Amino acid sequence: xxxxxxxxALKEALRKNKRDxxxxxxxxxxxxxxxxxxxxxxxxxxxxxxxSQLCMVTDLRSEKLAEIALQPMGEACxxxxxxxxxxxxxxxxxxxxxxxxxxxxxxxxNLSDAAKxxxxxxxxxxxxxxxxxxxxAPELPDTPPNDFVLLLLAAEEVxxxxxxxxxxxxxxxxxxxxxxxxxxxxx
Amino acid sequence: xxxxxxxxALKEALRKNKRDxxxxxxxxxxxxxxxxxxxxxxxxxxxxxxxSQLCMVTDLRSEKLAEIALQPMGEACxxxxxxxxxxxxxxxxxxxxxxxxxxxxxxxxNLSDAAKxxxxxxxxxxxxxxxxxxxxAPELPDTPPNDFVLLLLAAEEVxxxxxxxxxxxxxxxxxxxxxxxxxxxxx
Lengths: 187, 187
Prior knowledge:
Chain A is of the alpha+beta class. Chain A has helices at residues 6-16, 63-70, 102-110, 113-117, and strands spanning 25-31, 37-43, 53-59, 73-80, 85-96, 148-162, 169-176, 179-184.
């Protein structure tokens, strides 16, 4: 199993599935303040420089941030529809809202105008008062607004299942003393 | 908002997205024994008779069952790729492994042979010893084997987001004293 590494496998999946934008969507589970799970779709926004962390973005007003302040562990479940494979990525979530963060500024710069505009909408999840289309389109700034938060997942454990092919294959990887160890397990 | 109901909306989404089999896959979050979240893809296997619960299946040997014994609350996140809408369904999970369960027997009967065969594979997640293709194809019984468990999610709260269209729309529904109450909220 010396040749398997999940980061290469995930990058290969991204490449092979890139024709459908939905393959950049993954489901992120956290734990609510009452101890029950929460789960929602988020968009993958790239890796940090050394590929060790996955980047997503969130709104300072969303429930995720209060949840990870109490329980920082999260698990992302990422299913690729074209190659029929699933990655489960488990690890600590951190929020980066720092005004001097280079990564945060770069991620903001790469967002579409539509994605940027959401950070100027009324509070997510609050009862609908005005509709977003009533709100005048904001002047979109070059520097990220206060509500824009980078969300980073530092995987410690990765479970990779390939449904295509007979037999199916499944690898479980764990970060042990700073090194990844992968094992083939039963699907 | 009197006319919105999430069950009709979910059935409509199923109908409009049925050309892609992956639209019957959803991500189910539970909480592990250590209080951190778990998240994996499961297949939607239909509703219970009165449409109040979602059916999935699992293996008696899987980690899900130990998790829900301690924390029965789960949250399913279901993203439909063709209509671009997300349902988050939160509620209690129950396991039905009863040999006299009519629903369990019926769900078994509706599985494909490939799905049935998985219940005769070596223990999921254990280190790979033999590959599934080494295991002789089992005689697939008409009655479900012991390891076949029906997993039911009784939603208490549903968050439905439609990304398509301007503005996006979002409804939050809650079960209050046995009646569903829906509110339009900010996306």
